[in-house]
Design brief:
Beta-lactamase; 16 helices; two-stranded antiparallel ribbon; about 45% helix; alpha+beta; single chain; 2 domains
Length: about 325
């Protein structure tokens, strides 16, 4: 073999190696990232011929279902939401043209049966059609309705989250104004232009001052650091001045000298301002940081955050929070 041919062969081999390398990188290493891109509609097209799993409340009410349309050769499954706007947030929507959002996006792998790639390949070899799994959430429809009604009665945008204290299970995640996912195929542009926004899940996509919930952090810091005990008595008089700023209790209510139990029960502002001074800013900041490091890191995807909230508790065993059923056979939530 002469030199020019050997050089040409070397170039061809290098180019072939590069082709294999880049193709492998796209199809294997970057596959998940490419599939997750909003612009990539291929997974959605494929998913339309898969019977997507249902999403149910803890009582078994259907939040999201898939209905078959078309003939045997050109059929597809179309998503429907029997409870309408009640769970528009946090469940979101899933449609071939409009894409997915919320819980539907975060749990797409489970709902479309993609969780185990090897099982999917074996099913294809055996000629079995892939089918999604149902998900039973921890959400309570009655409580969700009550929270939504109360929020709407205020006439202002807002959000309510209700947790089960012993497991962290989310029973309610309500956000108003909300939207009916069934309207998305026809009215998405209108929903996007709504003011105030209806597609924003205010429970997880907005920032709020902690308010009186921060009193729990202050109390924990005081007790754990030894700065105070549950029996520590401080003045609950209102108003009082702290760092040159006047602070009053809600409604100007007076409590006199009270201990920490009474202060926490009645959310006494002036008591906890004094307690914060006793703990000191550096210690309080340390406990703030410790609390945030133990919490679940926020995902850039609102859907991921809502899914973690509805499906998992940080400190509780997974089985206490949710249970995935076999395809089309939901089990009761624990």
């Amino acid at each position: 073999m002469n030199v020019p041919i050997r050089r040409l062969l070397a170039v061809v081999l290098v180019l072939f190696a590069l082709l294999v390398g880049f193709t492998s990188n796209w199809s294997v290493f970057d596959a998940a990232e490419l599939e997750a891109k909003v612009e990539n509609k291929r997974p959605l097209f494929e998913a339309q011929q898969i019977k997507r799993g249902r999403i149910l409340t803890r009582e078994g009410e259907v939040i999201a279902n898939s209905e078959r349309t078309g003939d045997d050769e050109n059929f597809q499954y179309v998503r429907s939401y029997p409870l309408g706007s009640l769970f528009g947030n946090p469940i979101g929507y899933s449609f071939i043209t409009q894409g997915t959002s919320g819980f539907e996006r975060a749990e797409n792998a489970t709902l479309t049966g993609e969780e185990n790639e090897f099982v999917s390949i074996l099913d294809q070899i055996r000629g079995r059609r892939r089918q999604g799994s149902d998900i039973v959430t921890t959400l309570d429809a009655s409580a969700q309705q009550l929270a939504t009604d109360q929020l709407e009665a205020t006439g202002r945008p807002g959000a309510v989250v209700a947790l089960e204290p012993d497991t962290g299970a989310v029973r309610v995640m309500a956000s108003t104004p909300g939207f009916d996912p069934n309207r998305v195929p026809e009215d998405l542009d209108q929903l996007n232009r709504a003011d105030p926004s209806v597609l924003t899940n205010r429970a997880i996509q907005s920032l709020y001052p902690p308010g009186s919930t921060f009193k729990v952090v202050t109390a924990a810091a005081a007790l754990d650091s030894g700065a105070a005990t549950p029996d520590t008595v401080l003045s609950g008089a209102s108003p009082q001045t702290f760092s040159g700023v006047e602070l009053a209790n809600a409604g100007g209510e007076q409590f006199g000298d009270i201990d920490m139990r009474m202060a926490l029960t009645n959310s006494v502002n002036t008591y906890f301002a004094q307690l914060g001074e006793m703990v000191g800013p550096e210690t309080l900041l340390d406990y703030m940081g410790a609390g945030s490091s133990r919490s679940t890191r926020a995902s850039t995807s609102p859907g991921s955050r809502s899914a973690r909230a509805v499906r998992r508790a940080r400190s509780a065993p997974r089985s206490r929070r949710w249970r995935r059923s076999p395809p089309r056979s939901p089990t009761a939530a624990s």
